[in-house]
Amino acid sequence: MKIKNLSPLKINYPLNLLKEESALKEEIGKTSKGNFVKPLISGEIYPEIKEMLDKAKKNIEIDNFIISKWDLAQKLAEAAHRGVKVRVIAGPFNGSGNIKQILNVLLIRRYLRENKVELLNYNLKSLKPRFYNIDHAKTLIVDDKKAMIGGMCWTSDLDKNHDVEIVFKGPAVKNLEEIFNEDWKLAGGKIHQNIPIFEESKTNLEELAPETGYLTNPTEIRVVTTDGKHQDIKKSILEHIAQAKEEILLEIFTLTHLEVIEALIKAKKRGVNIKIILDPNIFAFGSPNKSTAWKLKEAGIETRFYKTNNKIHELMHTKLGLFDGNETVLGSANWTEGSLEYYHEIDAEIKDKTLADSFKKMFEKDWENSLDISPESFLDKISMNIIDKITKIFASYQER
Description:
The chain is an alpha+beta fold. The chain folds into two domains: 36-189, 2-Layer Sandwich (Endonuclease, Chain A), CATH 3.30.870; 224-395, 2-Layer Sandwich (Endonuclease, Chain A). Helix content is 35%, strand content 22%. It has a 15-stranded mixed β-sheet with strand order 4-3-2-5-6-7-1-8-14-13-12-9-10-11-15, with helices on both faces.
């Protein structure tokens, strides 16, 4: 693929936008009813992304931490050339990844900008001050009608990892689009037209009739964020843990937030059945989940490490919580201090038993294929304490 010469894109961040309170913010974070949802697991995600991009007719809006997969970049360029308005919010390049990924990120950004795609860097100045911040969201909106929320980066090895997402239609798409447009303005972009208003009428619901793979009943979705003004994902997680009465099932890439760990231990003490699958963090500095696993194990919480395929550098990249068989929380946010308090993250709460059952089947299969934690020795305890301290310093760099 030929990359033409292109001068660097200059972006100015208007300070007044950082202080502006938009009326749209009142709508963000509210629960919307009448949505149709389709669960996506691992290998189902990539084909769905490609199909959504191919079928786009009006507009495509993306916020993604890393875009380094060339065929998806080419689909965005093709859409832009056939008249689709394509807008991309990308996390400011932080040099993470291997050399090949770094080169692909830089070349793809240049390629997109030269092929009629509007690409802006997320405004990190809008986040709470920290020595290291990132835009870690992973969302896709097509034609104001269909959207995707989850944890998958658009990297060249995206199909190797174990991940979960949802694609949905309905009024929650408008809520997500409001967030995107607010972030677009903060990045220095202009909104050329009003955000479409979704009228929750019988006609619209008939138009939203579920396609193949969608759940047949309309459901409730609430889009929640972490950003410079909100810690709604953290609140959501803690509320779901506190309100759980019977069961909590978690499948989390990185879980180190002390307040969340303490909440889980309290839930266990009041009789809630809890099972947790963690990524072994083989390719992460300090293996932060090991310290968490011992804390949970000592509290009597069943905890296992996902059995990853290390030959292909597989990650168990899910950020999934299932509560009492009826509610699901998933998205981009790891359950860490960075993701729940500082970074830009987007998650979804979904209240639907059928969806929860679908992900529970995946969890049960993963549980059987996961590894139990072996008893620790005295030296293990010492090393875990050291790792715990180091992880607090370097945990920011484990986000994916």
